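Example (one chain per record):
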Amino acid sequence: MFKGLITNNVAEKVLNLFDEMKIEPDQFILSTLFNACAVLNNNRAMKTGKKLLAEMPENYRNHNTISTSAINMLMKFGDVESAETIFRSIKTKDIITYNVMMKGYVGNEMFEKALNLFQQIHLSLTNVTYTIAFNCCAKLCNDRVIKIGKELLAKMPENYRNDNKTSTSAIDMLMKFGDV
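Predicted structure:
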């Protein structure tokens, strides 16, 4: 039910309903609540999200889905340092976790950090990863980035070239490079 409310842009109702229910959140509810707080990104959401994070059971702390939701929430709040702490604590990171962390850096205009993190990824890249990396390259537009962006574009699988967001971000990057 919570997830449906977030999907329908009524994240505030998720927090209201959670407050009314007075239940201990399991891993699924916790992840959904973090997502609701990220969507709302207001004082109530920050207070609720940080409280939930502080009270989160220890056995949930290395669960990728929960940790990734918490990272997303913290990045939306502008709490990069706390997001980085959680990211570093995850033993086995997946590509979604890397994507959320990179997107968080971009959202906080920390493009160099996003690109540095991108260069640490030793997993199969997704179209989202390519899109975020191209967007970083377009924002930075220096010699290092031009080299990275063009190499990345050359290595990109053909099926990602048909993805509108990915191809648009690649075109934007090339235009910023003056490579029309």
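Caption: Confidence is low (pLDDT under 50) at residues 4-8.
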